[in-house]
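Exercise 3.2. Students should predict the tertiary structure of the chain below and write it as structure tokens, then compare their answer with the key that follows.

Predict this chain's 3D structure.
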Amino acid sequence: MKSFFANYWKQLLWFVLILVFAILFTDIMIYILIASFISILGYPLTHWLENKHGLSHTVSVFITFFAFILVFVIFILFIVPLIIYQANIISSIDLGELIKYYKDSLQDINSFLVKYNIVNPESSFVAWMQEQLRDLVNVAKFTNIFASFVSTTGSVVMGIFIVLFLTFYFLLDEKLVKNFILSLFPKSILEDVSAVLHHSKELLVRYFYGILIEVGIMMTIESTVLLILGVPNALLIGFLGGLLNTIPYLGPLMGAILGMTLAGLSELAYGSYDHVFSSVLYVALTFIGANIIDNVILQPQIYSKSVKAHPVEIFLVIIIGGRLAGVVGMIFAIPTYTVIKVIVNQIKDRVDRTDKEIMEKQENMTGEIIKS
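Answer key:
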């Protein structure tokens, strides 16, 4: 044990310092991870510009960097107006007309609940429902949300600047992070650590691009079908549904519930009370169909082939990730498992090489003894 600490005390000290830094400056660690993720996605484009078009590394990095900025700006210009429009629609719901239209149905529900002692006979289900709807509409109003966003604009802008700054230099010096990680390990295993980093990056790039393609396809399918069916705010519902699809298993359910809620509230705001059920049903059926396509076609291609793992492995890893860290654990379960699997395979290869070298030495020694 003493010899272990004597040989590796520098590496242990570095790991302790990094751990303390991550605890004290969690936000900065998150910025570093986001920048690392974006730069990993940018490496293939940078290499393609260099190798296929003969551009210099610096020019290729600038093009890749501004391509990411352009995508981000387009994303903001697309999604923010949709959210504001949806919030304004929901806030325009006429509660008086709504309660009046559904008054008989609410009275029947109230009578049923009183009959089976589910609610107090003196309480009014209609009044309670009206209060809930009023709260929902108030939450949907964008004034308070926008005000809170403006109050945090300074920190948001600073975070974006930090991420962009780090991303640019991670792209410019591709080995920056790799060299830092290698500096934390002893020279005796640098070759193995380098191999782990190389294989992990290859698999993660394939996986992340696969996820982006999956999200894009799901957004397109859901938005297109809902537009054809005439569901209000189909683009926003399809966008949110595809985005939530990045959460394994729970994501499609969350997206469907959110989509049905937005569709129903939009119909109520338009006064199309007779179309509420049909719109909600269309959203549910669309998400079910899209999820079937995702499970049968997209996910086997992305998860199994990109990270080279069996579907059963993927399922168990996601479940374990969910048990350990909830939704966040489910999202990062597959990338984490991919890196762990690469490390295990590298250790196995190192052990196999060591065993082979020992056997060769033994065979050589045996041959020399026989000759002598």
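Discussion points: The chain has 14 helices and no strands. The mean pLDDT is 77.
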